[in-house]
Specification:
By secondary structure, the protein is mainly α. It is built from seven helices and no strands. The N and C termini lie far apart (83 Å). The model has no long low-confidence stretch (mean pLDDT 86).
């Protein structure tokens, strides 16, 4: 438990939007930022468990901060932070795809959104316990390396077909427009 409280302290000492907001609240209210952070965490957890609109809150948590951090990573000279957030977005998109097909069933489970939010937070944790990094290297990358040639082949085929359909629609539209102009 001591290690967890030390990590919590280190997290509160980092400079980011959340810790700056906590410092400002601490200055205005006189309440220690540790208590403010713990209270906010408890309120968010309770809202995810029992609140209306938990889906929206969970999606905001899984999207807004990572989008902000991704923009900062793009603007930074380091390539490492770009890789961290690209990995997150790969895992997020695959999770979103899986959720699309199972959401009707899963959303009826109690505490589904709290679990989803915990999973997304796990995927964006900085450091060696980054869930997106672990999932990518243990599950997604091996599957990708095993099947990427077949997927590339299917994508080339679909791309060629889509271009053929688009060319056919364009050709038919030109013929129709020419015919309409002749009829006038």
């Amino acid at each position: 438990m001591d290690g967890l409280s030390q990590r919590f302290e280190r997290l509160l000492e980092q400079r980011n939007f959340a810790t700056e907001a906590l410092k400002a609240l601490e200055a205005k209210t006189g309440v220690d930022k540790r208590y403010l952070a713990a209270g906010a965490t408890i309120l968010l957890s309770l809202y995810l468990l029992f609140g209306y609109g938990a889906s929206l809150l969970c999606n905001l948590i899984g999207f807004v901060y990572p989008a902000y951090a991704s923009i900062k990573a793009i603007e930074s000279p380091s390539k490492e932070d770009d890789t961290v957030w690209l990995t997150y977005w790969v895992v997020y998109s695959l999770f979103g795809l899986a959720e699309f097909f199972s959401d009707l069933l899963l959303s009826w489970f109690p505490f589904y959104y709290a679990g989803k939010c915990a999973f997304l937070l796990f995927c964006m944790i900085p450091g060696p316990w980054n869930g997106a990094h672990m999932l990518y290297h243990r599950v997604i990358r091996p599957l990708f390396l095993k099947h990427h040639e077949a997927v590339d082949s299917v994508m080339r085929d679909l791309s060629g077909r889509a271009l053929d359909v688009a060319a056919g629609i364009t050709r038919d539209a030109k013929v129709s427009m020419t015919q309409l102009q002749k009829d006038k």
